[in-house]
Structures are given as C-alpha cells and as structure tokens.
C-alpha cells in the first residue's frame, strides 16, 4: 500500500520534472554563441593567393570568408609573423629559420608557390610575410584561427597580448596538433580566446563551426 505522502512526493516530482523539461533555461543557461563559420580560409586563402599574406587575407574577406586560418612564428627581434613554416626554404627558397632573422631580414615568398595540401600552385602580387598585428588591425570583425606550432612561451604570450590589445577574445581560436603546446596555450591564454583541443584542417567551405 502506497501512503498518501509518498503519492504526493511522486506527484510533485513528476510535475516538477515536466515543468523543467518545458523550461530548461531555468536550470541551464543558454550558450552564448560568439560566431558561426561556414566559410574558412586555410592558410588565409592559399590556392587563390600566396598563402598567409595580407593579399591572400584581403582576397578571402572580399569573397566572403568568415574565418582566417593562420600559423604564427616569432622573429629574432620578437615580432609575431604569419607563416606556415618556421624554416623558409619551401616558401622563399632560402634555408633559414624565422627565429634566426629580424623582421626586416625576412625574405619574400617565391613568385610561384606550390599548394602543399592539394595539386596546384598559387601566385599573387603580395609576397611579403605578414605581421599578426596587421591582420588584427585590418580585419577587426573577422574570426581568426591561430595555429601554434612551437612550444614557445614567449610566442604564446605575445599572441595573447595582441588578442587583448585588439579586443579579439571572442573572435580568436587557438589550435595545435601538439597537446603539450595546447596545454601551454591554455595556461597562458585563459580568457583570451577559444581553444581547440586538436587541429582541424579547414579545406572546405561547407564546414560549420560555432564558438
């Protein structure tokens, strides 16, 4: 025999469950989405312009990209530059590392550059290695995915400082294939952007991301 109090308890629980089922926002705060991306430009639009240059970024934005995917390294004199490789042999023809050169010593890209993730080449009038700060300054409303390839605390801190300087906390995504680097980013970054636990290769305009 079920007591009256037990029936009341079960009934109250059932009514409460039904109420919260219909009104989930009371218990669970709705996620605030910073941005959606359906068009992401890998290496800033490599394949249509020379990868990771301001010319490539400008073209990508003009054709409607919603996120620039870029890679960053640190020069000898402490500037954060945008380049897929630390060693510049493939991109410039000179077998030198970015970390061994000052900003003004960086060589220009080759006139015709192979697209390494698919068959083809890219070219363009802009052959200069770009500064991350210039990207943030010129495209304040475009989301940027920053891949960090070196476990370099100074590089990570300088990127974080630029994210803060240009108020891009909600528009910046940090990524790396290396979990150790991601952990370093997590410790340094905190509130200065979104973190991806693994690298996502953005080759298709059909990918949709929300942050």
TrEMBL record:
What does the entry list under GO cellular component? endoplasmic reticulum membrane
Show the SUPFAM superfamilies listed in the entry: PLC-like phosphodiesterases (SSF51695)
Q: Which GO terms describe its biological process?
A: glycerophospholipid catabolic process
Q: What is its main location?
A: membrane
Record keywords: Hydrolase, Lipid metabolism, Membrane, Transmembrane, Transmembrane helix
Residue ranges of every copy of the GP-PDE domain listed in the record: 37-211
Q: Which reaction is the catalytic activity of this chain?
A: N,1-di-(9Z-octadecenoyl)-sn-glycero-3-phosphoethanolamine + H2O = N-(9Z-octadecenoyl) ethanolamine + 1-(9Z-octadecenoyl)-sn-glycero-3-phosphate + H(+); N-(5Z,8Z,11Z,14Z-eicosatetraenoyl)-1-(9Z-octadecenoyl)-sn-glycero-3-phosphoethanolamine + H2O = N-(5Z,8Z,11Z,14Z-eicosatetraenoyl)-ethanolamine + 1-(9Z-octadecenoyl)-sn-glycero-3-phosphate + H(+); 1-O-(1Z-octadecenyl)-sn-glycero-3-phospho-N-hexadecanoyl-ethanolamine + H2O = 1-O-(1Z-octadecenyl)-sn-glycero-3-phosphate + N-hexadecanoylethanolamine + H(+); N-hexadecanoyl-1-(9Z-octadecenoyl)-sn-glycero-3-phosphoethanolamine + H2O = N-hexadecanoylethanolamine + 1-(9Z-octadecenoyl)-sn-glycero-3-phosphate + H(+)
Provide the GO MF annotations for this entry. Answer: phosphatidylcholine lysophospholipase activity; phosphoric diester hydrolase activity
Q: Where is the signal peptide?
A: none
Q: Where in the cell is it found?
A: Membrane
Family annotation (InterPro entries) = GDPD-Related, GP_PDE_dom, PLC-like_Pdiesterase_TIM-brl
**A Pfam match:** GDPD
| Family indicated by similarity | Belongs to the glycerophosphoryl diester phosphodiesterase family.
Its name, as the record gives it, is: Glycerophosphodiester phosphodiesterase domain-containing protein 1-like
Organism of this sequence: Sinocyclocheilus rhinocerous
């Amino acid at each position: 025999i079920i007591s009256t109090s037990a029936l009341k308890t079960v009934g109250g629980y059932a009514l409460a469950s039904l109420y919260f089922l219909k009104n989930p926002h009371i218990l669970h705060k709705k996620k605030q989405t910073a941005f959606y991306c359906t068009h992401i430009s890998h290496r800033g639009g490599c394949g249509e312009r020379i990868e990771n240059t301001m010319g490539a970024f400008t073209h990508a934005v003009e054709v409607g990209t919603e996120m620039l995917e870029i890679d960053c390294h640190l020069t000898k004199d402490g500037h954060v530059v945008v380049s897929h490789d630390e060693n510049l042999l493939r991109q410039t023809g000179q077998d030198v590392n970015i970390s061994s050169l000052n900003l003004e010593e960086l060589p220009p890209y080759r006139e015709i550059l192979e697209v390494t993730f698919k068959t083809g080449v890219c070219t363009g009038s802009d052959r200069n290695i770009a500064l991350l700060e210039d990207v943030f300054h010129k495209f304040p409303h475009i989301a940027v995915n920053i891949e960090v390839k070196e476990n370099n605390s100074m590089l990570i801190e300088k990127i974080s400082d630029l994210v803060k300087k240009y108020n891009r906390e909600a528009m910046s995504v940090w990524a790396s294939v290396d979990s150790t680097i991601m952990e370093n980013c997590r410790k340094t970054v905190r509130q200065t952007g979104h973190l991806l636990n693994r690298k996502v290769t953005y080759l298709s305009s059909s990918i949709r991301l929300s942050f």
